[in-house]
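S.,

As promised, the flavin-adenine dinucleotide run. Input:
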Amino acid sequence: MQTQTNTTLLIIGGGPGGYVAALRAGQLGIPTILVEGEALGGTCLNIGCIPSKALIHLAERFHEAQALAGGDSPLGIQTSAPTLDLARGIAWKDGIVKRLTTGVGALLKKHKVMVVQGWARIVDGKTVDVEMRAAKGARADSQRIRCEHLLLATGSEPVALPFMPFGGRVLSSTEALSPEALPKRLAVVGAGYIGLELGTVYRKLGVEVDVIEARDRILPAYDAELSKPVAAALKTLGVRTHVSTQLLGLSEDGEGVRVQGQDGQERTLAADRVLVAVGRRPRSRGFGLSALMLDMDGAAVRVDSQCRSSMRNVWAIGDLTGEPMLAHRAMAQGEMVAELVAGHTRHFEPAAIAAVCFTDPEIVTAGLSPEQATAAGVDAIQASFPFAANGRAMTLESSDGFVRVVARRDNHLILGWQAVGRAVSELSAAFSQSLEMGARLEDVAGTIHAHPTLGEAVQEAALRALGRPLHI
Ligand code: FAD
Ligand code: NAD
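Predicted complex:
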C-alpha cells in the first residue's frame, strides 16, 4: 500500500549533516521529514567517528596497563599483566553509540521532525518514494513524499579494491570496528585516517600489524613535519609500515597479501585479516539520483557556497558533496541549509575547517600550512614551539611534537595552525576560533593562557613568530 505525505523540507539521510539540518529546521518551524534507511546518526555515530574514538581509548588504556606491567615505568608504578574481555569492550563502545543515537532520536522528536525509517528513492526533484522498514514477516509499505525543498545528505561509503572486494577476510572499517575476535596478524591497506587510527588500535591490543601505503609516506595528506612523529611512534609501537608499496592481491594460500615494493620485488605479508582503508566515495548511486541529472564532480554532487545543487530547491551537504569528508563540515552545512530554507541569508565560507587525525600522537590542522601559504602567493612567516619545552606536556609524559603558526608577514593576520602531540585534538577549538575571528599574532600572544596547559604552546608559538618567545 502506498500513502502520500506533503512537507516543506524532505531530508534524505540521518547522519550528522541530515539530522543537524532537521534539528535546525524544526527549531525554525519548518515542516520537516527525515528519511533514514539504516540508523539515525549515520556513519559518524554508528560506524565512524564515535566508535573509532571509543576503540582508540580502549586500546590506549590496555596498552598503558601493559606498559605498567612491563615494570620499567619511570613513574614507579607496577601492575600485573592486563587481560582483555573483548566482548565487554565492544559492548561498552556499542553502549556509547546507542546513547548518542537514541539522543538524536529524542532531539528530533522534541523539534517535531517526522522521522521515516526506510530507503528513499528519488522520483523527481520534489517527489521521493520510501520503502518503509517492515516488521519481520510483514509486507513492506511504501510512502510517497512530496516536498518543496529536497535536501540530499546520503553520505559516503568505503572504496573497495576491484581485485579484492570486501567480504570474508577483507574488512572495511565497519567490520574492523566490531571484531568478534582479534586476528593474530592484520594487514592494513592505506596509511590515511582510518588505516592509521584503527591500525594503532589493533596493534595496541596485541595484533601484529603491517600497513601498506602506495604513496611514499604515511598520511600523505598532511605535511611531512607533522606525519614524522606519528611515523616514529608507529615504529616504536611495532607497526610495520611499507610505503611506496603496491598491493597485488590476496596470496593464493589465503594467508596473506602479495605486495610489490619500491625495489620491484614481490613478497607476501602474512595476515589473517585485511583492512582496506583507501578512501571513501560519495553515496550517489542506487537511489535514483542520476534521474535528476545534477551537475556532478565525479561521484560528488556539485554545490555552490549555499549548498544548492544545479536544480532549484535541491540541496546537498556533507560527504555526498566530496572532500573534506568530515562530520563537523556536514553539520555546519546542514544548519546553514535549514536557515536558507527558512529565508535567512547565509553562505558556507568558513575561514577554516579543522582536521584532526586521532593517531598517537594526534595531528590537528586548521587553515593554511606554510607550503599552502607560499603556493597561494602570500608572504608568510611561521614559528613552532616544541612540547619538549612545555611543563604540562612533561607531566603528561608526552613531550614529543609541537605547535606551529603561520601568519602574514605584513600585518600578522593568522592564516593557519598545525600541531602534533598527545591530546592536541583539543587545541582545534582555539585554532578555529582565532582564524574565524581574524586574530593576529599579537592577539594570541597577548592572551593570558592558563598554566600549566598544552595551550601555552599556542601562545608561545605566536610569541616566537613575533621574535619574543619566553620559554625557549
Ligand atoms: P553519513 O554520516 O554517511 O550519513 C548518511 C546517512 O544517509 C546514513 O545514515 C545512510 O544510511 C543514509 N542514507 C543513504 N542513502 C539513503 C537512502 N537512499 N535513503 C535513506 N537513507 C539513506 N569525521 C570526523 O569529522 N571526525 C572523525 O573522527 C571521523 N572518524 C571517522 C571514522 C571512520 C571509521 C569513518 C568511516 C568516518 C569517520 N569520519 C570522521 C567521517 C564522518 O563519519 C563523515 O564525514 C560524516 O559521517 C558525514 O556525514 P553525512 O551526514 O554527510 O553522511
Ligand atoms: P584517506 O584518504 O585518509 O587515506 C587513504 C590512504 O590510502 C591514502 O594514504 C592513499 O594514498 C592510500 N591508498 C589508496 N589506494 C591505495 C592502494 N591501492 N594501496 C595502498 N594504499 C592506497 O582515506 P580513509 O582512511 O579511508 O578515510 C576516508 C575518509 O574518512 C577520510 O578522507 C576522512 O574524510 C574520513 N575520516 C576522518 C577521520 C578523522 O577526521 N579523524 C577518521 C577516519 C575517517
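The pocket of nicotinamide-adenine-dinucleotide (ligand 2) is lined by residues 189-195, 197, 212-215, 220, 247, 277-280, 324-326, 356-358 (CB under 6 Å). The mean pLDDT is 97.

- D.
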